[in-house]
Every structure is written in C-alpha cells, then in structure tokens.
Design goal:
Organism: Roseofilum halophilum BLCC-M91
Number of helices: 5
Low-confidence stretches: none
Number of strands: 10
Helix content: 25-40%
Mean pLDDT: 89
Oligomer: single chain
Order of helices and strands: HHHEHEEEEEEHEEE
Strand content: 35-45%
Protein name: Plastid lipid-associated protein/fibrillin conserved domain-containing protein
Distance between the termini: 37 Å
Largest sheet: 8 strands, antiparallel, barrel
Strand order of the largest sheet: 1-2-3-4-5-8-9-10
Length: about 200
C-alpha cells in the first residue's frame, strides 16, 4: 500500500491560496487522495459535525467517477479556474434543532458560495451527518445573489419549502452527499455521490 503524505495535500491547499507556492503534479494529488481514502476504509475513524464547522475553500476536484482516468490537462485547467473563481463551502451545526433522530445523525446547514468579481452567488440548505458512517448529506433549497454584503435577490429553488420540510426524514438515496475520508483542522477531503474527489482548505478569513 502507498504510504500517505499529508504534506503534499497541505501544499496543494497552500498553492491555491498563495501563487508563490508551487502546486504538486495533478497525478500525485489524485494518488494521495486515493491513498487516504483507502486508509479511511480500514480505520473508520469517527468525526463530528463540529469538525466540519466553518468555511472551506475548494482547492481540488477531479470530476471523474474513480478519480483515476481524468485527463490531466483538464484537471489542471479546473484548478486554474478555482484560483480565478473562489468557491467556498460553509458548514454550520444545529445542535438544538428539534424533532430529529439524534441517535442516527447530527443536523446542520450547508452553504456554497461562488464569488465572481464583486458579486457572490450563494445556495444553501439543510445538512445531516450520519453517525453510522462518514456520509454528510445535504440539499440546496435557497439561492441568493449578493453585491458585497447586500442581498440583491433571494428565492427558494427546486420546490425548496417542501424539500426543507422533509429533508431530515428523506432517505440518503434521494439526497446529494459527500463521503468524507479525511477531516483535519486545516483541510478536508471527500468523494461525492457522483464519484468525483474533492479537497478543501480551511478559510482563515
């Protein structure tokens, strides 16, 4: 088995935030993420919603089902776009939320922000972390457009009111989710429902 190299993933995150830091080779990043995923399947180390709380900047995506055969040129282009168009993921736990099965999951909210110039597109909605595994399911039910901090537009999307009402009772097969295999203070990594790999670095403000 390949030995894991956490420093390589830290370098990947640093290169997204600082242009003076060189990015590792795309193939090396993918192999490192796969190595950590394999370790996770063996160790099954638990984590809590609190560990995911905060803001995370998307630093790496593969967009490929197994993360193995994606064209490396396309992968490098994706990372270049992520530098130009910041995408932030925000998790907020909701420990006081009523009428949920606390034996099965932890409740929270998720927010995805895409910044284009002075404008920010935001989609957000409910989230839940299953205690039986590493899956965090979510649903985007509201969309906003902001100019600086001013909300220009806000609306429910995709029958959002009904989806909000039934989210915590909905089976996982009906929801989007991330299966996290690496959760650390400064970075997190997961495989999405569609099979792609993703790496985020914690935003420091």
């Amino acid at each position: 088995m390949k030995m894991t190299n956490f420093a390589l993933l830290e370098q990947t995150v640093a290169s997204m935030l600082n242009p003076q830091v060189s990015a590792p080779a795309a193939g090396e990043v993918v192999e490192e993420l796969l190595a950590w995923e394999k370790c996770r399947k063996k160790e099954k180390t638990p984590y809590g919603f609190e560990q995911l709380a905060g803001e995370w900047r998307l630093c790496w995506i593969t967009g490929e089902k197994q993360g193995r055969s994606l064209n490396l040129t396309q992968m490098r282009l994706a990372q270049t776009l992520l530098r130009l168009i910041p995408i932030q993921l925000v998790y907020r736990p909701l420990p006081d939320l009523e009428k949920i099965d606390r034996q099965k999951f932890e409740a929270g909210e998720v927010e995805n922000r895409i910044q284009i110039g002075l404008f920010t597109l935001i989609v957000f909605g409910p989230a839940k972390r299953l205690k039986s595994n590493s899956i965090l399911a979510f649903d985007f039910t509201t969309m906003q457009v902001k100019f600086f901090d001013k909300v220009l537009f806000s609306t429910l999307i995709r029958n959002g009111e009904n989806r909000n009402a039934r989210f915590y009772q909905a089976p996982i097969r009906e929801l989007a989710f991330f299966n996290y295999f690496l959760v650390q203070d400064n970075l997190i990594a997961a495989r999405g429902r569609g099979g792609g790999l993703a790496l985020w670095g914690r935003s420091r403000g």
